[in-house]
Amino acid sequence: MGGDPTLQLRIFDLNCWAIRYLSKRRQERVRLIGDMLRQDSFDLVLLQEVWSEQDYSNLKGKLGGCYPFSHYFHSGVIGSGLCVFSRFPILDTLLYQYSLNGYPYMLQHGDWFCGKSVGLIITKISGIVFNVYVTHLHAEYCREKDVYLPHRLVQAWELAQFIRHTSKAADVVLLGGDLNMHPGDVGIRLLRSWTGLRDAFAEATRFEGCEDGCTLIPNNCFTVKTELLPFPLGIRIDYILYKAMSSVTVKCEELKTTTGTAPGMDIPFSDHEAVMATLHIQRQGQAVGDNLGTAEPMLVDVVTEARTEVVVGLRAAQRQRYSTGRMVVLALLLLLLQAAAALGALAGLAAGQPFPKLSFSLLAFLAIGVLLLATGLHLFHTMEVKMLQGTEEQMRMALRALQERP
User: The pTM is what?
Assistant: First the structure.
């Protein structure tokens, strides 16, 4: 790229589906991903679901000659799974963990244990400062009854706020990741309208890959076919979004997706298709400045719609907090009743009646277990209520500011 004011940046984004010990043929797929990235000349590689740090270390060792700079973002119990490989020096990094990440007791989903986050790296290429964000939002699991929608909207709002407040010194903003939202969903509309980010798929001059840019497709052997029955072509939930912040213009020349199995193999790289974008970046004489990407009346509608969904989630969380609070009270009453019964039984020992130690011990353990579980759930849902209330208040303030603008 040198000192040429016109740059061409190639970006690769993939949800690697690399769950430690559980993903099908994980090590083989990670090796295939590394081989493919070595053969192709991307400038930035954004990966999600690399939860095994050993996989990251293996990739780093394999890609070191092509991508000398990399960073792995740590968070949660099993890790954020986010990492970046770059041909250019990484000047700074930052990680923000979302305040809501699902439910710890939903073990079959496990999103809470990942500590869903957004990672930021800052790099400079030919004098142009890039803020590069990589993220993975909470999965949907059931579109008809999406209990995680309020959490995902909180994440989308926090992601938008994080980008706006950390990108003021950047020339170009790039975001890649598995957003787990369809292009028309309220969360993606909120993110794009609040930040002004543009969708590489919608803006691309040329496109090659799966129809409609889908990244979760039925003919991928690792996807759950029943979840895609309403969508015969698949769904698009992986994105590369971008925005020029100053005296720079950015255009997407080409967007590609992988289309199934890896070359010469019987398996794909992941259950998601990779997204590859080629961006044309050029300096201009006049600063563009930071602005919202959507007209304010439309932005008001989007924020209002998102706030309504957050309020629905808030009411559900308040009901859960109330139910778990009642469980705590009932468990305490049960312990008090046992204590009273135990005192009565001990008083009856003088009359020669035996003390039922085993029964009292079992009941005591049961009551204590229920008390501890209920207390933990009550504390969790109390925090959930506070986070949802905080986001709702932020959205309300944002709406007031938008409506008061002349």
Answer: 0.91
